[in-house]
Amino acid sequence: MARRTRKAGMVARFGPRYGVRIRRRVQEIEEGLKHRHACPRCAAIAVRRASTGVWKCRRCGYVFAGGAYRPIVTTSFKREVEEAGKEAEPKPEDA
Asked: What is the pTM of this model?
């Protein structure tokens, strides 16, 4: 049985131009961009991008800042968690 070719998806509009690696990267970014995400306030899967870095929940109307392509940027989120953990730790007292 013959193997089938992979579907191009959203990047089919580029045709054979720009190379496979670049088209795959664009496809990954655009899939995350178009996908619906969970709202941080009401937890509904209804968040969509309003503009660059601005995300809006279609259910509760909550508007918040996030990444350009994803509502929660993992690198900044990790940094915030680490900073919050450092603040929560009790500091040793000098006797």
From this structure: 0.65
